[in-house]
Succinate--CoA ligase [ADP-forming] subunit beta
Amino acid sequence: MNIHEYQAKALFEKYGIAIPKGAPAKSAAEFDAAIAQIPDGVCVVKSQIHAGGRGKGTFTDGFQGGVKVCKGGKAEAKEIAAKMLGNTLVTKQTGPAGRKVQTIYFTEANQIKKEYYLAILLDRASSRPVIVASTEGGMEIEKVAEETPEKIFKIFIDPGYGLADFQARELVFKLGLNPAEQKNAIKLLRALYTMFWETDASMIEINPLITQPDGAVLALDAKVSLDDNALYRHPDLVALRDLNEEDPKEIEASKANLSYIALDGNIACLVNGAGLAMSTMDIIKHYGGNPANFLDVGGGASKEQVMAAFKIILTDPNVKGILVNIFGGIMDCDVIAHGVVAAAKEIGLGLPLVVRLEGNNAAAGKKTLADSGLKLVSGDSMADAAQKIVKLVA
Ligand code: ADP
Ligand code: MG
């Protein structure tokens, strides 16, 4: 789960990570009250969407920049905010459709001595948290990694021990900070690691982290992703979820405990098991089709879950055909069959449907489908089923 910058910054504040003074507003009526909370003078207006690259983004009406530093102070900030709110911002990370801005964050502008990059994430190769830092802040880190990898420093953390003092010191030396900055940066690193650990985050990224002429170290931006699997431990963090930022189909799927990700093809897949779901998408591609989604109903799905899955698939207007690919290990194929039949009867099935059932109770499942009167094609193998659905959709 991702959260907005202003929410991430509230967490930063709680953990003692220095941030610019700021306040959010969700409507134009809230602008004055929010602006009143920041100091007079130059201020910054920031579109709140779950995507980076806002500063260099463009709104669909042509207005440039989802983050604006306003030299004209609060009056200008209010004008700019009115142009951003409700407008759709396209950045390198949003895709061409962009994201509608529904919250504006007003902050003070800070004097910047130098910009840095700082992140903590989970390194899958070493199974450890890793701190990634660079002297090249404010730029795309992918570009720095490609062009000047020597300017990126990594520290791998033993999760049993936590961030060691020598590691924090080593990092601030490598970043070339002066003694006053080092002291503040080490304090910030410790707080950041504590937050990463306690919130079960999968990533915290600060780009840019800045130093100021007096030695202060401040997080100007904040991107936080939380591990969905740990959210049950954090009701306070679950409350930060913004459903406006999520695909409605994915919201429905998460309510039914299904792993669903919408894609841009036209062949919907209903599969049990993430590995089989991946290979089903691969085989559809292999035979020249395009998957409309990743959908794993899990190892022990109920009829209700299968129905929910089927409904989600059928509400996607891009879907032109459906491939059900089930390998019953724990999963009872007949349960899937009953779910498919019930959902198709309830919603009405006007699309080609290919079903491949294999394994546990497959014969009963096939009989349920055959007796239902539903118009469907059965596939004998994965390859056969994939070829059939690709052909039907074409
Ligand atoms: P994004 O990464 O989505 O473009 P940022 O929050 O990093 O958004 O803001 C973009 C740029 O705006 C920053 O790199 C920085 O140069 C400038 N900026 C943001 N906040 C401030 C601030 N409080 N004071 C001065 N400049 C800022
Ligand atoms: Mg940024």
User: Anything to note?
Assistant: Residues 7 and 243 are 14 Å apart (CA to CA). The chain has three domains: 21-108, 114-238, 247-393. Residues 52, 207, 221 surround magnesium ion (ligand 2) (CB under 6 Å).
